[in-house]
Amino acid sequence: MVNRNLIRSLEDDDLANELALLAPADDLEDVLFEALEQEHQDYIQGKIVDGRIVEINDEWALVDVGFKSEGTIALDEWGPEEDPPKVGDVVKVLIEEMEDELGAADDPYGMISLSKRKAEKIIQWEEMMTSVAEGQVVTGTVIRKIKGGLLVDIGVNVFLPGSQVDIRRPGDIGDFIGRVIQAEVLKIDDTRRNIVISRRSLIERQREEDRSYLMKELENGQIRKGIVKNIADFGAFVDLGGIDGLLHITDMAWERISHPSEMVSIDQEIEVKVLNIDREKQKIALGLKQKDRNPWENVEQKYPAGSTHPGEVVNVMSYGAFVKLEPGIEGLVHISEMSWTKRVNHPSELVNIGDKIDVQILGVDSEGQQLSLGMKQTQANPWDEVLARYPEGSDVTGHVRNLTNYGAFIELEEGIDGLLHVSDMSWTRKISHPSELLEKGQEVHCRVLSVDQERRRIALGLKQLDNDPWTTDIPEKYQPGQLIQGSVTKITNFGVFVGLEDGLEGLLHISELADHKVDDPEEVVKVGDPIEVKILRVDTDERKIGLSRKRVDWAEDQEASVVEEERQKAAAQEELKGGLGGGDGLLFPPKAENNDN
Description:
The chain is of the alpha+beta class.
C-alpha cells in the first residue's frame, strides 16, 4: 500500500507525480523513503555537531554523532598541545560525508566521514567574523612563508601578500617569520573563508599622518635623526619619521667619495642637517657634511698662491690629476703643469691614484672651491739653464725625434728639442724634405744657431759645421765662360736644373736651351741626360749659377756682344725699379718661382 500520509507530508504534488513516473507503485513507498533520507543527509552534511567518543585505537577514534553509523577521526587531528582524547569525551566535529547503510565498495561498514580540525577552523572563522571587518586593524603572528607572501595567525590564518609587507619590499620577507605585526584587513571572502591583510597600507596611513605633522615643524638648518632606507649611486634616502629626504652624495662629505655606501648603510640611524624644503612637492634635501666646519673657510690663508704642499693623488683624468691636500680640500694639476720637458700624453704616465707628491698652489678660487696646482713648479725649469748648456755657436749632438716638411726636430735631452730647418741642412744641395738626408732616431751633430729662451726654441744648423763653399771654392772653381759637363736633375716650366757636382746645381733657363724658341724643355732634354753647358754667371749672394746650352759653340766676340746687351738691359731694369730689385731675368727666374721648384 502507498502511504498517502507520507506523500501529503511532502506537500509537493509535483514531486509525487515525478516519483510515480520513475518507479512502480509497489516500490513508491521505498523510493520516497530513500528520497527523504537523502534530503536529510544533504542537510546534515557540512554541519558541525557534537559527537561522543565511543572507542579509541592506535590510529583513530570512533565517534557517535547520533546516526545509525559512527564516524572516525584520525588521532593526528588532536594537536600536541591538546590533551589526548578519551572514551566518553564530547567533541565538535564536521560531518563531511554520509555513507549509505551498505557502505561504499571500499568501506563495507558505511562509516560517516568526520573532521575535528575542520570543525574547529569553521568555529574559529565564524567567531572571527563577528569581530573583524574590512578596514579594521588586526594583530597577528607571522607563521610561515608561502607562495606570494606570508601566512599570519590573527586567530585564523590570513594571507599577507609580499607586496603588502612594507612600503619597499624587503629583500627576504621570510625575515618576518615569528614577528608580531599589525595590519589592515583589505578583503574578506566569506565563501572561501579567506582574509587578505596589508601591513603596507597601515604604514602608509601612519606615515601620511606623520608626514603632515613633520612638514609643519621642519625648518631649514635643523639637525634631525633619520634611518637610511635606500641607497643609490647618487645618494641615500633617509626616513625622518614619516617622510624621506635625499642625502646627495655631494653632501655626504667634504672630501671625495666614490659611492654613498662608503658613508652610510641601510637601516643605519644618522643625524643630518635639513638643507632645503620644497613643501609643495614634499621634497627635502639633507646634508651630512654641513654638520662639520667647511674646510674651504680661510683656504686662501692656509694655501696661498706660490706655496708648496704635500698631497695625495685621488683621481686621474685625461686632462689632469686631482690631488688631495687634506680631507675636503682637493685641487687639479692640469696635464700642462706636470712637467717642464716631458711630452705627457696622459697624466697616468707620471702619476697614479694613491701617489704622494708635492704640488705648488697656482691659483685659489674659494667661492668655487677650486685649487689650481702645479707639479713642475716644484722642480727646476731646465729652460732656465738652456743658455748656459747650449750657448749660440756651440756644437751639439742629438737624435732625430721627428721630421716635418720644413725641417727636423733634434732631441738634445729629454724635453729639449732644437729645430734643424731644411735651409740649414746643406750649402749647395736643394733639399725638398729632410727625409732626403735624415731619418728618425739617427744621431746628428749640429751647431746651435740661436736660442729663444722665452719662446723655448733652439735653432740648429747642419751646414754651418762646414765652411760656406760659395765664399771660397765655388767662385774659384766655376768661372763665367767656362764649359762644364753635368747631368739633368730636374725639369721645370722655366728651365732645367743641371747637377755640376754633388749637392751643387746650376740653372739652364728655357731661353738658353737652344737657338730656337723652346716651349717645353722636355722636348729637348730628359732627367738624367748628360749635358755640356757654359757658365754664364756665378752669383755668390744669391747662391746661383746661370748656365747656357745654346752658347756652348759661340765665339768670344758673339758672347761679348750678348753679354754687353744683357748688361745694358739689366741696368735699364735697375734704373726703372729705382735700384730696388732687378736681376738677370734671362739667367735666373723670379725668386718665388724658383722656391716653388
